[in-house]
Q: What sequence folds into this?
């Protein structure tokens, strides 16, 4: 049985992943983005809003797969973690799919954290010292960083309140 400290830690990790606490949530950052701006790339930047969201989706899924499947092979770094750059506009269905997959994978990871049989601290046998706590912090850190970038891109495209 897990103790009270474990429960508090898991709840704080979930809050950090879901809410961000000290910054905007991913949902806040992408709310109401006009479809026409999703693949617009501001001057001097290598990516747009959709590229950042897809990168977040790919990286988050990679972390989940690493945590749950010892046989999993990560994509090639760095190209495998970013969508292919294209001038193609993203449809509403494609955008909604990206958002839905990010949310579903986040929930999948949160359910992993909540699983009482899972140990936060023991390194994975298939890793190089990683444990579930470290991977939870990685998801929170990585997603908050790129959420902020989405807001900056929106500001550069004159689309932030």
A:
């Amino acid at each position: 049985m897990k103790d009270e400290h474990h429960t508090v830690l898991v709840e704080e990790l979930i809050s950090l992943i879901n809410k961000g606490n000290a910054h905007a949530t991913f949902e806040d950052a992408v709310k109401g983005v006009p479809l026409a701006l999703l693949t617009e790339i501001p001057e001097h930047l290598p990516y747009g809003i959709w590229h950042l969201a897809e990168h977040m989706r790919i990286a988050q899924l990679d972390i989940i797969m690493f945590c749950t499947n010892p046989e999993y092979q990560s994509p090639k770094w760095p190209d495998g973690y970013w969508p292919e750059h294209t001038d193609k506009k993203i449809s509403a269905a494609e955008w909604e799919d990206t958002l839905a997959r990010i949310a579903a994978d986040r929930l999948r990871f949160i359910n992993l954290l909540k699983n009482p049989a899972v140990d936060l601290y023991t390194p994975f046998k298939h890793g190089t010292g990683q444990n579930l706590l470290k991977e939870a912090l990685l998801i929170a850190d990585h997603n908050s960083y790129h959420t902020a970038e989405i807001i900056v891109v929106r500001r550069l495209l004159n689309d932030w309140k």
